[in-house]
Design goal:
Elements (H helix, E strand, L loop, with lengths): L1 H16 L2 H4 L13 E3 L2 E7 L26 H6 L15 E4 L16 E10 L6 E6 L5 E6 L2 E7 L5 E4 L7 E10 L24 E6 L3 E9 L5 E8 L7 E6 L3 E6 L5 E6 L16 E6 L4 E6 L4 E4 L2 E4 L2 E2 L2 E6 L14 H14 L4 E4 L6 H10 L2 E5 L11 H18 L5 E8 L5 H17 L4 E7 L1 E5 L2 E5 L11 E4 L17 E3 L6 E5 L18 H16 L4 E4 L7 E2 L12 E2 L12 H11 L2
Helix pairs in contact: 1-7, 4-5, 6-7, 8-9
The chain binds alpha-D-glucopyranuronic acid.
């Protein structure tokens, strides 16, 4: 135990000395969707590079120039000159792909491509006249190498979080050539590792924008409601005139105050409880138009104000107990060939099934940070959110560099989403087998969340154990991570994996800590939509529906149950699932098929939520 404690201390020091300031991305451009920007979505050319010849030559030497896709050249024009030089790529005459969207859905030959692909698009920027320009990438899975007009401007690791690169100096008048290498390869030191239960979806999966700002601009602003009803927050300027600036903060028609930035261009905001504040809730998702303005710049956002806390075994939203009626969801749009292109209509189609059809108030956005589009829609529609980074099953727990990646991904997520009232839970892991290194890793992640965002709750989707006590079958939660969590959560598949009979589920006993809320973060069973079997064979809709009925009866008997997010809203792609009749590369635990066909179990859950 002593060894564990000093090891946790060591990791906490590592985590805390990589505190919020150290992990804050250098540029955030919060609220960039409201800023003056050019959306670079559309047709990009691409060039496969499975052997990474554009990055390195054999033996790790610098890549041969004839392979460097990012070069600022017109290959056709070069070839027209004749001579001895030649190229083994041409980004102008290459095939095209619609961006954003994963390459797996773009071409049959790319369906299972796992490696490096170079993308390029040309664009004209306007003359800056003293302004600054940035490229903001909402996500690229998994590593990104970005070049503008032949110069490397930055790199990023992580498939689900945004990054911002300044291009003020690299931009030129007229046509610019943006080249981006995206390498989808995962390994034992990535987060996640290659071992997951979802499809790869490599490439530029979310929008890319060219954002213009004044020389000194408001890079980030954050507001939240305190338990006493006051409002607190921060604002951070970036640029030569960041220090000593007056910042006017308007919150709808509720408040209009002014703060002055310090020598580092930052300021904290505190507001007494505004009269007439409408708190955000799933029933009344009140959002306020917020503006932060200096003499030269304005940052806008739409923010809801609510409080979230735990008291004993209850989750309190705005001081009132709430039961989280939810479901888990991957970032994958409806349709037979999804590209993980989460447009607003695609996200609305998914979230409406939860809100309107299932009568839900909550969604577990598993197993990685979802698109900002989805988060903003959850704010607008009134769905509480569980957010997580893909520390999933196993990662290299003893590797400080891997921990640093996890803490960085947490920071990128929290800085991106902390203005979203919908987000109430930061989860630090999913189904990670208990070991000392794993618990140290998660403890450091929990400490990191507390340092970055003390206003929200911490959870993790844990594994359960089954014990026999007095001849009874008891499900037990025993995990050293419990002490770091505000809300307990477990994934349980009794009745699907294993040989339990569905009829035995309702009577199954649970032994859980009485002092904390419990969420059933996953339970589920596969069913192929349209496959019916009166004898309820597995993979039939009837089996899945009976599984739900009996699991819901069992769940209702857990005294500390505060919510659930059954696995999963809709069937999703997974190369782990290859039964040639029932699966064909789809995980069929959806309550809906991939094309949106409702299965019988959908109505079982909808009815349960309607009456709970
Ligand atoms: C696990 C895991 C999910 C997976 C599910 C399943 O609980 O968290 O990502 O898809 O089980 O087996 O279908």
């Amino acid at each position: 135990m002593r060894k564990l404690l000093c090891a946790i201390c060591a990791l906490l020091c590592l985590a805390l000395n990589a505190g919020a300031a150290d992990l804050r991305p250098p540029l955030l451009l919060t609220g960039s969707i409201y800023r003056d920007s050019q959306d670079l979505s559309g047709a990009w050319t691409y060039s496969k590079d499975l052997y990474r010849t554009g990055l390195t030559d054999i033996n790790g030497w610098v890549a041969k120039s004839r392979m460097q896709r990012y070069r600022d050249i017109d290959v056709t024009a070069e070839e027209a000159k004749g001579g001895v030089g030649f190229y083994e790529f041409d980004m102008d005459r290459g095939p095209q792909m619609n961006i954003p969207g994963a390459w797996n859905a773009a071409q049959p030959e790319l369906r299972y491509y796992d490696g490096l692909i170079w993308f390029q698009r040309k664009f004209s920027a306007r003359p800056l006249r003293g302004q600054r320009a940035f490229l903001r990438f909402e996500a690229a899975n998994y590593r990104a190498y970005v070049y503008l007009n032949g110069k490397e401007i930055g790199r990023h690791e992580g498939g689900f979080t945004p990054f911002v690169l300044e291009v003020t100096e690299a931009l030129r008048g007229g046509e610019n050539r943006l080249t981006m290498g995206v390498d989808s390869t995962h390994d034992a030191q990535t987060i996640p590792t290659p071992i997951t239960d979802w499809d790869l979806y490599g490439g530029i999966t979310r929008p890319v924008r060219l954002v213009y700002t004044p020389a000194t601009f408001i890079d980030d602003a954050y507001l939240h409601l305190n338990p006493d009803g006051s409002i607190a927050g921060t604002v951070q300027l970036n640029g030569p005139q960041a220090a000593g600036q007056q910042v006017s903060v308007k919150i709808g028609d509720l408040a209009d105050i002014s703060v002055k930035t310090d020598a580092q261009g930052g300021a904290t905001i505190t507001l007494p409880p505004p009269r007439g504040l409408q708190r955000w809730s799933p029933e009344h998702p009140a959002l306020y138009d917020i503006s932060f303005s200096t003499a030269g710049d304005t940052l806008r956002d739409r923010i809801g104000f609510r409080t979230i806390a735990v008291k004993g075994s209850r989750i309190l939203l705005n001081g009132q107990p709430i039961f989280l009626r939810g479901v888990s969801m991957h970032e994958e749009e409806f349709g037979p060939n999804p590209a993980r292109n989460m447009t607003e209509p695609a996200a609305r189609a998914l979230l409406s099934e939860i809100k309107q059809q299932l009568h839900g108030n909550y969604v577990r956005l598993s197993h990685y940070p979802h698109s900002e589009t989805t988060l903003r829609l959850a704010d607008e529609m009134g769905l509480l959110v569980w957010s997580e980074i893909p520390v999933y099953w196993t990662v290299d727990w003893d590797n400080p560099a891997v921990l640093r990646k996890a803490l960085t991904m947490q920071a990128e997520t929290i800085y991106r989403d902390r203005n979203r009232a919908a987000v109430i839970l930061w989860s630090v892991g999913n189904e990670t087998p208990v070991s000392e290194p794993r618990t140290r890793f998660h403890a450091a992640m929990a400490a990191n969340v507390r340092a970055l965002d003390p206003t929200r709750l911490i959870s993790a989707a844990l594994l359960v154990e089954r014990h026999k006590a007095n001849g009874e079958d008891v499900t037990v939660i025993k995990d050293p991570l419990l002490e770091h969590l505000d809300v307990l959560a477990v994934n349980t598949y009794t009745g699907w994996y294993g040989d339990d009979k569905l009829a035995d589920l309702p009577a199954m006993k649970w032994q859980v800590p009485a002092d904390r809320p419990l969420i059933l973060s996953e339970f589920g069973a596969d069913a192929l939509a349209g496959y019916h079997d009166a004898s309820m064979k597995k993979f039939s809709e009837e089996y899945q529906a009976e599984y739900y009925r009996n699991t819901l009866t069992m769940a209702s008997r857990i005294p500390t149950l505060a919510g659930m997010s059954p696995w999963v809203l809709k069937d999703f792609r997974s190369p782990r699932r290859e039964h040639p009749v029932f699966q064909n590369g789809w995980n069929r635990k959806g309550l809906l098929s991939e094309t949106g066909a409702r299965k019988q179990a959908f109505d079982v859950l909808a009815d349960f939520y309607l009456h709970h």
